[in-house]
Amino acid sequence: MKSLSCRDIGFDCNYTVRAENDCELFAKGERHVFNAHGLREEEFTPKFNEKIKFEDQ
Ligand SMILES: [Zn+2]
Q: Ligand 1 centre and the CA of 13: distance in Å?
């Protein structure tokens, strides 16, 4: 199980994503930031990808 908090990617937000793998983590995180923070894909994707890679180590 992997998890990533919204705060970790720079938002003042208590939401935490939990998922079985990176793919699911990304999908869930993406949905949240688009809906809750009104982010666009091009603003969100590089930052989030970077964070996932970092958390993986
Ligand atoms: Zn959030």
A: 5
Query: Is the four-CA dihedral 25, 31, 37, 42 of positive or negative sign?
Result: positive
Residues 57, 52: Cα–Cα separation, whole Å: 9
Dist. CA 17 → ligand 1 center (Å):
9
Express each pLDDT in 17-47 by its tens digit: 999 998 899 899 889 988 999 988 787 777 7
Q: Taking the model in full, what pTM does it have? A: 0.72
d(CA 12, CA 6): 7
Sequential DSSP letters for 18-37 = EESSHHHHHHHHHHHHHHHH
